[in-house]
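Look at one such:
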Amino acid sequence: MESNSQTSIYIPQSAYLYFPPESEKKVGEEKKIVRSVFEGDTTYDAFENNAINQLYEELNKQNIVLPKDWKRSETLKFIIACYFDINKAIKSIQEYLTWYNETFPITFDQDILDILNSGIIYAHGRDNRFRPILIFNCYKLDTKTMDIDKLLLAMAYFLDYVMKNLLLPGQVERWIFINDLKGLGITSLPFGVLKRVMGYLQNNFRSRLHKMYIMNSPTTIYFTWKAVKPLLEETTTNKINFSKTSENEDMWRHTNKSQVEERFGGTATNIEKDYWPPKNPSQDYFISGENSNELLITKEEYLKRQSAGKLANYNVSKELTESSVGN
């Protein structure tokens, strides 16, 4: 496949050297907890553990059996999303498992490839905590001819790929979404599709969204937003940020401009083809004023942790560990 002078968006070495402090893993207390990291050596507080235990007790009462590979972390994601309403969380988990079993495994066919190559959804860069930036070009949707079920299937394949290849459990577990509404007005906005997509992301990819930037939103979109907002959970709506232009200043608080296309105010070349597989535009991740030496451990420290077995709950970088052999 022809390249547009960008490299594949593999996980950078520096991301493996980033271990978020507790202050970045969780904010809030009890029912208002918002957690961004669940895996690795992350420990849950007494309130979280008590809620998980309550849910398991209720599952036993209802004779509901979770899959053998179901993780305690997955349970907590649903509990937090449901504001610690145990029965609501159980219902949500059941709905998710039904969807998952009906959807996966997904066969990568020509329909999915065509959608991923269309530029409707693709990955481009990372923010200052190595969270992948995902672009959803809503204006490219042709709702008259497109099979929305195929679109959602392609999105499921794409996001599953992102989770397995672009995230690091215990270190980088969330993503950024940029939703571009360029040229769409209240009459041309595919309200029904957006509603399905938003619900799809919220229900099936729990605790993955860090921020969603809706760019080029017409003034009238706020009326539509008022109609959609009650249908979404507060944990989702609090992460959504509107902009009437193609740029949002809030993004630069956590994103180096070299990671973002020019059309959104960044300095990276706009992508017009070769959307798949994902691309990485730059190796500059941190923003002005940040010191990488304060945010990342050294390679030597990483190797020490690996030798001591302290990385057993993490994805270990082969590039970092293998490069030390023979040195």
Q: What stands out?
A: The first strand starts at residue 7 and ends at 8. Residues 104 and 234 are 28 Å apart (CA to CA). The mean pLDDT is 89.
